[in-house]
Design a protein that fits this description.
Elements: H1 9-21, E1 26-27, H2 33-42, E2 45-47, E3 52-55, H3 57-67
Antiparallel strand pairs: 1-3, 2-3
């Protein structure tokens, strides 16, 4: 059963751009602020002290499964 919050296409694109930005994150004041703020409330994004959005571990995992279409980790290594 699917129990994760739905991400709109614009939010998935914003999450991808954020992941591409790396550790520096993305500055506030851009057109994707509403999406990044929504994902901040979901725990996929965090606001840094320098006024930038950065991806969280949860965001990295969601990006891998929803944007990159990778299978979720099973919690163990073979």
């Amino acid at each position: 059963m699917w129990n994760e919050p739905y991400l709109e296409t614009c939010c998935r694109a914003a999450l991808h751009r954020l992941c591409l930005a790396g550790a520096h994150g993305r500055p506030t004041g851009l057109q994707d602020d509403p999406c990044l703020e929504r994902m901040r409330q979901m725990g996929f994004v965090a606001a840094s002290g320098s006024g930038r959005f950065v991806v969280t571990d949860e965001g990295i995992a969601r990006h891998a499964t929803e944007v990159l279409k990778q299978k979720p980790a099973m919690g163990h290594t073979p």
